[in-house]
Design brief:
single chain; 238 residues; alpha+beta; 3-stranded antiparallel sheet; two-stranded antiparallel sheet; 53% helix
Length: 238
Amino acid sequence: MDRYEDIKELLDTVEGNISTLRAKYQEARKSENVKVVLRPLVKSTLEHLRSALEYSAQDIWYLYSTKSKKLYFPYGLEESLFQANVKRNLPNLKTQLPHIYQLLESIQPFKSGDNWLKELCDQTNFNKHNRLTEQVRKNSEGSTTNVGNLISMRGGRVVFDNCSYNGMPLGQGKPAVISSDMSVEEIEKSIAIPVKVDREFDWVEFHFDDSAHDTLELIETSHKNISLYISELRRLTS
């Protein structure tokens, strides 16, 4: 594989980007104000993963053809579409290099039972040509809410009526309500005293708009599967 070192460099960069994204997710668990995560970094990471696939397609073509050709990595949600894309981009691959064809086929959605490949390619195309994809934050149902040294709670609802904290009246004449259904800002307004309020969710996700895929999960899955694919391709062609 002539482009193996280039592909490896891209995948190593993606691995570093994954660490950065994980850190941002950890930050978001402790802050309701984090609405999106590093969308420009997500865009470049998606493009690195897609380029690794495109480079591999070029190497496959040159294994059995000396003709110069503009081509793209073939993929398809359905087998018929995949076969049409192979015919368009890597003609005669199935007869010339059946073991490589089978490898490409093995990571297709209809064969693997997972549509990460199509989602990766779709999201890369959208981010590259249209705009940065919107992200939808999703929080875990479970979270821990801390209000100074007054209370630490997981779920539920507590009402303080005619109570004081450090000599300050909670709620300023009204019952002070602390609930897992309330935002941190709402709790701060309810207790009405200058005390630190924080919440940590068990997990957060940032889904691509109108997608079941979490951003980080798709990138991690794609990186893992592409790394395995490249390793096997190198083994088959060495």
